[in-house]
Specification:
The protein has about 260 residues and is mostly helical. The protein contains 13 helices and no strands. Helix 1 packs parallel to helix 3.
């Protein structure tokens, strides 16, 4: 394992003391572009740095789409082809980037939702606004595919990213537009195969459904440009949430055993 380049350490120290600048982002992009694959630890440090940058920007409400325009396509490329250790970190950083604060009211969150939608499209490297939706769906499909991989850590990180996406009004649009995704969410058997490798991921998957339902309720009728969940699908999600992650059948069976 090669040591972390001094340039990465230098920028980490700088942004620990004060908010990052556009020049810092540009330096980060250059670092990411030139890091050899053997410097996995350095790449992880760089993405930790990106995490810090994004939080600073969102806290200051001063983020501009162009600031991350160089870094996001790099994240998109790594999302397509990276070792599991780095892929997990990339997924975690994207969840931080795309998650809307749950406590933020709709009127205050709307500009940020538009910004994160633009960021999602930039992850695919799309230069054309008219292609944003198709490119966003490609990114979403890739994350969903990772949520079905056999690697536990990657699977968990991908599910957490899907939950973060569901905090967005455009997230429920992707939920509706991605063929087969609702059926996948409502299938409680998908996480059984990995239960022996760690804590079951079914509650994480449940949080995706719960968040999608809450986002629909919160944003209903406020953003006509983004497709909402139809009444039939919303009723299915509501029933799933009512029954909990394990389902009412399991709960009722447990009660019956205790009473017997």
């Amino acid at each position: 394992m090669e040591r972390i380049p001094p340039a990465v350490v230098e920028i980490l120290e700088k942004v620990s003391a004060q908010a990052g600048t556009i020049q810092d982002y540009e330096k980060l992009y250059i670092l990411l572009k030139n890091l050899p694959s053997s410097q996995l630890e350095a790449a992880v440090s760089a993405y930790n740095l990106l995490d810090i940058f994004v939080y600073m920007d969102l806290d200051n409400r001063a983020a501009e789409p162009g600031v991350l325009s160089h870094v996001l396509p790099t994240l998109g490329r790594l999302l397509q082809n990276s070792p599991p250790e780095l892929l997990t970190r990339v997924l975690n950083v994207l969840a931080d980037v795309l998650r809307l604060p749950r406590s933020m009211p709709v009127d205050g969150a709307t500009p940020l939702a538009h910004l994160t939608w633009l960021w999602l499209s930039r992850i695919s490297g799309s230069p054309a606004p008219e292609a944003f939706k198709n490119d966003a769906l490609k990114v979403f499909a890739r994350v969903w595919a990772l949520a079905r991989q056999p690697f536990y850590d990657v699977r968990q990180a991908a599910l957490l990213l899907l939950e973060a996406i569901m905090t967005e009004p455009w997230g429920i649009t992707l939920l509706m537009d991605q063929a087969g995704f609702v059926e996948y969410l409502l299938n409680r058997s998908t996480e059984n195969s990995l239960a022996s490798e760690g804590v079951s991921l079914l509650p994480v998957k449940f949080s995706i459904i719960s968040q999608a339902y809450n986002t629909q309720e919160k944003w209903c009728g406020t953003c006509p440009q983004w497709r909402e969940i139809d009444e039939e699908t919303l009723a299915r999600l509501r029933e799933y949430v009512r029954c909990g992650p394990w389902g009412s059948v399991r709960a009722e069976a447990a009660v019956a055993i205790e009473q017997g």
